[in-house]
Write a structure and sequence with these properties.
The structure is a homodimer of 154-residue chains. Chain A is mainly α and 154 residues long. Helix content of chain A is 64%, strand content 8%. The first copy, chain A, has a single domain, classed as Arc Repressor Mutant, subunit A (Orthogonal Bundle). The first copy, chain A, has helices at residues 5-10, 19-43, 49-60, 68-75, 79-91, 113-133, 140-152; strands at 65-67, 95-99, 107-111. Chain A has a 3-stranded antiparallel sheet. The two termini of chain A are 41 Å apart. The model of chain A is unreliable at 1-10 (pLDDT under 50). Chains A and B meet through helix 2, helix 6 and helix 7 of A and helix 2, helix 6 and helix 7 of B. The structure holds a DNA duplex (30 and 30 nucleotides).
Chain lengths: 154, 154
Amino acid sequence: MQPDVTRLVFMKPRLREHTVTTWARLVRTETTLIDQVQKALKAAKLPPLGWYDVLLELKRAPGGELRQYEIGAQTLLTKYNLSRLVDRLQREGLVERHACAEDGRGNLVRITTAGTELLQRMWPVYGAVLEQQFERRLSVDDLLALENILQKLE
Amino acid sequence: MQPDVTRLVFMKPRLREHTVTTWARLVRTETTLIDQVQKALKAAKLPPLGWYDVLLELKRAPGGELRQYEIGAQTLLTKYNLSRLVDRLQREGLVERHACAEDGRGNLVRITTAGTELLQRMWPVYGAVLEQQFERRLSVDDLLALENILQKLE
DNA sequence: CACATCCGGTTGCATCTACAACTATTAGGG
DNA sequence: CCCTAATAGTTGTAGATGCAACCGGATGTG
């Protein structure tokens, strides 16, 4: 008698009782928090979170510049997505694109003073939400426990 | 001497040492997991996660039907977004729209047999990723701790 | 019951994202 | 060195999302 492949395919993966609900809660909580940040930024007439992420990566980098693929690796943005995002940032004068000496294919993206200024205007808004919706609600132990758990998921 | 408003606006919110890094890790981990699910679904030539969420809500509802705004409340989708998503589901024969007797403005969305079947085809793929990337990596205690922490963030 | 307001839902339009195809350059193997 | 393959980045096009304006139908207040 052959194994019934059909049943295998349709069989529910056996997951622990609370796994799915916790997963759902994780997704729900995270997206809600992100939404709150986005809303706060919009209310303050500031650009979306993606801009912040890219600018921050650049700001942190030595010389304030990175290759595009380096930004992509950090921010989980796809290359085509990033290409156009950098276009927008460039159009607003927040970054500059320079030819890359070592690699003729790529370019270096550098943050401008205007970019740094924008970062400084965005952080208070972003940070305020983080403070109220995230830090405020967690004890130091919670934070450590959460970090420990997240680490296991990477 | 007047208070220096400028300094206040530019002042960094005071966050605990690990708050920001943990937050970053949370976002990163969650989006990575979601990406993995999406990739798995795409590899199996199945529709995106959003379809699953809506269909599941309907499936769980008594009679397999819900008002659109009820779906929206559960899934955190905006109403215009949902309006068009239901259009797509309807076009594929996965749901039906019916006029609502009690409220002449709205409509009832009901899942079809095809919709239920799709759910059953999607779950194994979704669940497999959850099992390997989520459940497998966490102890029962981890899961409880995580649930406890997430609860505080809601 | 008349009126303004609110609410569920849809739609036009602009923006953004996904996918695949493309260019140009670098890297690797015989 | 040459040829192939891999990599960095861009772009055309289609699909999805966000915003604001809109259309009824419901609700509340005088």
